[in-house]
# Entry
Amino acid sequence: MKKIQYIILSLALIIVATSANAQKESDTPSGTLSPYSQMGLGLLSEPQTGFNAGMNNISIGMRGHADVNTGNPASYSAVDSLSFIFDAGVSGQITNFSQNGNKINRKSACIDYVVALFRVTKGLGVSFGFQPYSQVGYDYKEIKYINDNPTQQYANYYHARQGGIQQYYVGFGWSPVKYVSIGANGAYFHGDIDRYVYNTSADETTDKYTKSYEINISSYKLDAGLQVMIPIGKRDQLTLGGTYGFGHKLNADQNLYYIHTTTATSELDTVKYVAQNAFSIPHTFGAGISYQHGSKWRIGVDASLQKWSYLKYPVFKEGNNGTKGFVMSDNYFVDRKRLAIGGEYCYNDMSRNFFDRIRYRLGASYTTPYYNIGSNKGPREISVSAGLAIPIINGYNNRSIVNVAFQWVNTEAASLIKENTFRLKIGFTFNERWFMKWKVE
# Structure
């Protein structure tokens, strides 16, 4: 009965956190303010929870009895039989945008994730929660001269977008035989992405228009994972991991409401354009390896490939003869590759000295873009992170921890905006022995 009560409590907390996140997104764009989030489905998020944020989100080969590792569901089978793990995280960031000598700083914050993990029976762990798939949020002004002549009047084009895609998942990890584990996550894939473009002009004879793009996604997402554990001596273990994400159509339309105002007559004309079933997610492949020396230290490497280049994207075209409409472009996307390395060290997790029990984490990654911007490649991303796992000291378990991670991300593309983001992530991992059967004498 207690197990059911705690599961219901965790679900309630997830619902509350999701509602708070939805309310936040209605007031501000999202956890990002990057103009690059207007491309594709937005800025893609890596699977992360408290334990791997400081290691730059390595996950595929990572395995631990106190970790909720959504990056590879095969890891769920390692959960301690006495534990119910609840993990939630938030982040805040400051981004410096620079181009052609111009600089500006912007701040944003968001709820990152809420997840839980528990063991059903020997060798079978179950996890549920929500995490972002992508984030979208920007607001900027673009100045264009009429006929590209700086001596002519100019027009201001305002661009704004908000939203993103969330995944609400349930997954399992099962170890059918010793040293082998398989797992899967099934997610409800949902998001609203709205984009607005409108113009004002110093020339009063220039017609005005507003373009309102709307995407509503309501679909599913499936991911599978495998881990093979190889004991080395009495304390060490090598873990090999692999993941696969199923690519498929999202059955989501791209809607565009084109509102044209003729200045001379003040007539308003609204036309709706639709690109049906225009969006997909790619097949994704991942491989990882980790080496663990008891509870003292572990290190891992991840490599992943997302096959975006096989997908098409709806691009709105306006012809010289006045024709308008969507064209499905097959050269918008490119394959996205990511390589990451990370590790953690703990002097002695059984020591009575508080500082000896802190876990110190480091990580770095390199990620290629998944889209082109015109004839140029999108921005590549370099990231470095560091973090701490600080034990919560109380009178009855000492198993819960506060995870703190600092991350620097450099996003840059040739002749385009350069971004330097400094991010602080805080996660709370509550690991309580809720299923222990106490003996009273």
About this structure: The radius of gyration is 24 Å. Residues 2-27 form the longest helix (26 residues). The chain has one helix and 23 strands. The longest strand covers residues 208-232.
